[in-house]
What does this fold into?
Amino acid sequence: MMPNDIDDAALDLLLARAGLSLTGEQKAELKKYYSVVAAMAENVRKPRGRMAELAHSYGFTAEDL
Amino acid sequence: MTAIPTIAKAARLIAAKKLSPLELTKLCLARTKALDNQLHSFVVVTEERALADAAAAEARVMAGTTLGPLDGIPIGQKDICDTKGIATTCQSKILAGNIPDRDAACVERLADAGTVLMGKMTTHEFADGGPSFDLPWPPARNPWNIDHFTAGSSSGTGAAVAAGLILGGIGTDTGGSIRGPAALCGIAGIKPTYGLVSRAGVAPAAFSLDHIGPMAWTAEDCALMLNALAGPDARDPASAMRAGADYTAGIGGGIKGMKIGVIHHFHETDNKVSTGTQAGIDAALATFRGLGAEIQPVSLSPLYDWHACGTLISLTERAAAYDEWARTRLGDFGSRVRERLMLGAFVSGVDYVQAVRRRRELRAELQAAMTGLDVVLTATQPEEAPRIVGMEPWDIGRKPGFTMPFNVTGYPAMSICAGFGAGGLPVAIQLVGKPFQEAKLLRIADAFENATSVRARRPALADAMVPA
It folds into this structure.
């Protein structure tokens, strides 16, 4: 299994957590794209330390203008 | 009236009592009846409402009590915007019978400005995915060639403006849904600064990435519409609570001495654009130089970084917004939205927060890169409109798009037509301004349009239907 692959048990766990009921065919299709999302999740992980804040609900500052 | 007017031109004629709002509306209705069986740009045509709105506008004009330049102008509202007493379906089986009891803020504001509501415009289901052939309504077709895609999700507005069925309309933009259809349909569309235009009453796609904005034939027309749309709204928790400005103030003002940064690596290496699109960008830069602007390169993090950040946020916020229906009615969504909702299960809470932390870093990066610049420029779409049939499902695997970076940052961005590529299909450029500097962005776009002949050409299908 590639590092970014997901096995059937883990997939079932994530889907159960999300409350989604999928057919076997849908699960097989979805499973192919786990690596795409996992790569994105890896991309946003940076060595930023614990103090780095979120961007949520930001306002624009004078520096923006 | 033998040609499709811009909003600005129609407004001047109406003010001079040389054009009747009622006659203009009847012309648009006739064009819609003649062409929309091919374009599918409307979900609902509100003919009775349009004629009543137009008659009211005409009475105001004759009484000298006109409401301004949008009075009597036929427009469309994307079908994710609530319209009181008029079906708002979000192009979904789930909301097929939904009749809102209140207008969305963008509907109210355009109505208050005297516009004529022509109907509800085709969208991708809940403004996501597409094109889809498993929804209650067909996808919109590109008026430059109806075998080709419009992009989305503001697909109906893009198609109808280009074909001259409406003079302007509302789009929404979570990752490019105003700018994409504007590009492929060869019109102008602006995604304003996050929070400048109220999202109240508009179905969410991803709360923190969602923007509402105008789409029209020209930048000047977008400015006229933005004048009516912008401003604070207590109904929208993300409202910037900031007064709008006169976005037409810079129209016709020229751009001598302005500084334009070009993010070459976005469209030349990170996601290399087609020959036609690159030619359009190169020609646009030559035009800007000719107008006296200074051009300089800008380097940012790779396009994929912006795409990854925006996509993780988008997948998660959408999954949260539609969680209840995803759990109980997943089979009632079309396949493309169902795919996105399923993908949301792959994003953990930690992943989401890391994406939102990354968002802060990327916004700071763009802010620094734009120091000393007026705007930055890149592509809007990688190529001319592809054929609509045969587009692959699971588009999450596609190359990163050029529009998401400016949903991630909230900076204003617009697409304008930059010429024509393969098969006579439009190509576009994307201009990005600093927060709340829409007037400057529109001024630069207007200068480009006036320096070129791109606005002189309409789709052949649209020209053929102009009554003599």
